[in-house]
Amino acid sequence: MLTGAGISAESGIPTFRAAQTGLYAQHSPQELASPEGFRKDPKLVWEWYAWRRSKVTAANPNRGHLALVAMEQRVPKFTLITQNVDGLHRRAGSLNVLELHGNIMNTKCSRENTPVTGWQDTGSIPPICPNCKAFLRPDVVWFGESLPADKLLAALDAASACNVFLSVGTSTLVEPAASLPFLALRHGAVVIEVNPEQTPLSKQAAIILSGEAGSILPQLVNAVWGCVI
Ligand code: NAD
After folding, report:
1. How many CB atoms lie within 10 A of CB 150?
2. pLDDT tens-digit profile of 158-210?
3. Could you give the CA distance from residue 35 to residue 63 in angstroms, rounded to a whole number?
4. 187 is a catalytic site residue
5. Atom 8 in ligand 1: which residue has the minimum CA distance?
6. Which end of the chain is more exposed for a tag (fewer CB within 10 A), N or C?
7. Atom 4 (ligand 1): residue with closest C-alpha?
8. Is the pTM of this model over 0.90?
9. How far does the centroid of ligand 1 lie from the alpha carbon of residue 124, in Å?
């Protein structure tokens, strides 16, 4: 199954578009979440991510995340592919999670591309890599960057092999994740979409559950397994 920003909306984490009505309403996603944007204004990008990290730290998993934990405990083979960088699925208790776009709480060196867990506070924003002195950056996948190959391959395998594919809270616009439900369709899976709005997937999904994930997913696990979230 695949999740997007919509599943965390009810935890108070804005979706990408909604996020832009906040602190940095005047900037495009490319300015805030691309290598070019980071090169142009690293301080702006670091501070925008610091703001997003504070929102994520203050947030808690919602009933939608918890319903997916219950689902994983009841389905023999369950893979949760997420485009979200907020880590809320793992915090909720989901185990087999593929974070396709990384995790906002992690940091890496912008030159060496290696994870960095500690650095000296020199007052520099962004902070400096202790090894090579390049700027540090969030360990997330930005527009124009490749996804980690191992995670993408695992996601493609899971989408090709599944019987049922749930697509929850994603606009189905950001590639390559957007292709996963269509791949599942081509391999004969029953595709179910959970979203209050129409997406490019809606016309082809077998079942549309129109509404918010925090209410639809608990109803789904209750209807299938009699489990109360
Ligand atoms: P998106 O912002 O493009 O689309 C969000 C989708 O969620 C929309 O289709 C919307 O109708 C739906 N939605 C809104 N509220 C919902 C709810 N309560 N229940 C179910 N659906 C709901 O998000 P995307 O498709 O994930 O793609 C945007 C990109 O931005 C991704 O790459 C993602 O990594 C990143 N992003 C992540 C987070 C996060 O980690 N929480 C937040 C914002 C953006």
Report:
1. 9
2. 999 999 999 999 999 999 999 999 999 999 999 999 999 999 999 999 999 99
3. 35
4. no
5. 171
6. C
7. 171
8. yes
9. 32
